[in-house]
């Protein structure tokens, strides 16, 4: 039977990057940690580390064991937190990171199912750059990150990207901007003031290619890393706003905007990035299960 104490020692050493550093953090002697890992390897019949010079490097099997260890001890931490919350009558926290390129209205649509669980949770949202949020996810300060792109392959973060759904992209404008345009869509975009998502937005590239393929030449009057700020400029009449069709009805109703048309083939995809290979967190699972239905309902409303 697996010895979880030995597994925890292995997990600590792997996360610390070496026995000496793990020893300093835990207060255990290096010989103790080394002996515990050797005993674990012997009991499982595997090699978890190999030595490269003075460094210990995980073997392929070691990396697989570490993935499982991450899930095991994360779940243990969640269990402990849930028990403490129940004992004190507090709702368990659900910590979410939302990349600033994800429209706020879409983040709400995706997160809403987590607020209707039988065991209520207190949702804690953090917004920011994807790289920073993934760093917090890696050290378990967040339970999940919502993004418009999967986990970047060049980031040294163990995580898994779960597709939640996608939305087509439409073009919206205030009444004043719409009245100033000439011709039908998409030709009316020629010379039109256009707002663009920033360089980090996954949809920016496909959107620019669509404009290029259609030989459309709008005037780019603003670029925005934050989707909410870009929307505010669009509603204020600064330019044509490309936005997910999923929130089109809201733009038309609350922003008083007009829908010009849609960019065929250009979509924005939404992901839940977690440290879990198989989703077990009840709130994250609720989001994943409900997202395709919620997004499909929004898309149907647009049609």
From TrEMBL:
The keyword Transcription regulation applies. PROSITE patterns: HTH_LYSR. It comes from Thauera sinica. Belongs to the LysR transcriptional regulatory family. InterPro entries: LysR_HTH_N, LysR_subst-bd, WH-like_DNA-bd_sf, WH_DNA-bd_sf. Residues 2-59 form the HTH lysR-type domain. Keywords: Activator, DNA-binding, Transcription, Transcription regulation. This is Transcriptional activator NhaR. The gene is nhaR. It comes from the Bacteria. Gene3D superfamilies: Winged helix-like DNA-binding domain superfamily/Winged helix DNA-binding domain. Pfam families: HTH_1, LysR_substrate.
């Amino acid at each position: 039977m697996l010895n979880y104490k030995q597994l925890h020692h292995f997990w600590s050493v792997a996360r610390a990057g070496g026995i000496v550093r793990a020893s300093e953090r835990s207060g255990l002697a290096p010989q103790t940690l080394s002996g515990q890992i050797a005993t674990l390897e012997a009991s499982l019949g595997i090699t978890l580390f190999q030595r490269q010079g003075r460094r210990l490097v995980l073997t392929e099997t070691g990396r697989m064991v570490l993935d499982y260890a991450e899930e095991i001890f994360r779940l243990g931490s969640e269990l402990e937190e849930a028990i403490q919350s129940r004992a004190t009558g507090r709702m368990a926290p659900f910590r979410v990171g939302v990349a600033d390129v994800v429209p706020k209205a879409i983040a709400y649509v995706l997160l809403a199912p987590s607020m209707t669980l039988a065991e209520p949770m207190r949702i804690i949202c953090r917004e920011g750059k994807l790289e920073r949020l993934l760093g917090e996810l890696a050290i378990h300060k967040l339970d999940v990150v919502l993004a418009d792109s999967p986990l970047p392959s060049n980031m040294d973060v163990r995580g898994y990207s779960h597709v939640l759904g996608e939305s087509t992209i439409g073009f919206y404008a205030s009444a004043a901007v719409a009245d100033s345009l000439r011709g039908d869509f998409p030709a009316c975009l020629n010379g039109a003031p256009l707002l663009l998502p920033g360089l980090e937005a996954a949809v920016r590239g496909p959107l620019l290619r669509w404009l290029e393929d259609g030989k459309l030449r709008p005037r780019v009057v603003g670029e925005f890393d934050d989707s909410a700020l870009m929307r505010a400029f669009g509603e204020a009449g600064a330019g044509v706003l490309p936005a997910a069709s999923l929130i089109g009805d809201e733009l038309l109703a609350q922003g008083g905007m007009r829908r010009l048309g849609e960019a065929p083939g250009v979509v924005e995809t939404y992901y839940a990035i977690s440290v879990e290979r198989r989703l077990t967190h009840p709130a994250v699972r609720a989001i994943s299960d409900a997202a395709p239905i919620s997004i499909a309902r929004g898309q149907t409303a647009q049609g």
